[in-house]
Amino acid sequence: MHSFIFKLTNYNFVNTSKFTIIRRHFALFMEKEQIIPDVVKTKAEHKLEVKYGSHVVNEGNVLTPTQVKNSPVIKWHADDKDLFTLIMTDPDAPSREKPIYREWHHWLVVNIPGNNIKSGDEISQYIGSGPPKGTGLHRYVFLVYKQPGKIDISKLTKLTNKSGDGRGNFKAEKFANEHHLKPLVACNFFQAEWDDYVPEIYRQLGGH
Q: Please, are residues 145 and 85 in contact by the beta-carbon 8 Å criterion?
């Protein structure tokens, strides 16, 4: 009996230690890639699981606008009784060197029960990556915050994916503070630069 208890305790300790190491690694990565402080000031509790079909988002890996043109499948640890906010944002608009439009947000969904995004209130419809030609790699950051309660969406402006109006100079941290969102439950990001699909996005947004 004592041996079983020791093994069980040791198993829990090893798993807790492993979780702590993974969390610490990702927190350091957020700082290294300047997600902290360019987008948020606090570390995420978990790494967010984001998949575009067979393409997995993983700590700043490079994907193409073609690969991310449709909204991804996203999962995080959640209780169905809790509500969450999902943000996808680009802090490098129009470029990382001169981010005068920081941030340009690509997706905003609030009042998500658990991690069932489709049951949440979509405030800004999904728009894939569309970095201007010659501006290099942009970071596309996904953030999930826990809400203290339901957000009154009547006070928020809904944005379609047919226009870029109202997307620029967004601040995820400011939005989180205004709505008392905490903690930052999960985060992840990828990078992308211009490819041949980007002009299609601009036509969709009415730019060309």
A: yes
CATH class of 33-204: alpha beta
What is the residue type of 90? D
Alpha-carbon separation of residue 25 from 19, 43, 45, 55, 188 (angstroms)? 10, 11, 11, 22, 13
107 strand-pairing partners: 88
Nearest-angstrom CA–CA distance, 137 and 134: 9
Report the C-alpha dihedral over residues 128, 174, 122, 29, rounded to 10 degrees: 50
Tokens of 35: 């997600």
**Beta 61-62 vs 184-192: how paired, if at all?**
parallel
pLDDT in tens, the chain (208 residues): 555 444 444 444 444 455 455 566 777 778 989 999 999 999 999 999 999 999 999 999 999 999 999 999 999 999 999 999 999 999 999 999 999 999 999 999 999 999 999 999 999 999 999 999 999 999 999 999 999 999 999 999 999 999 999 999 999 999 999 999 999 999 999 999 999 999 999 999 985 4
pTM: 0.88
84: left (phi over 0), alpha (psi -120 to 50) or beta: beta
Strand partners, 109: 86, 122
Where do the structural domains in the chain lie, given as residue ranges? 33-204
Contact 120/112 with Cβ under 8 angstroms?
yes
- Write out the two tokens for 155: 């006070």
Which residue, 158, 152, 132, 128, is CA-closest to 140? 128
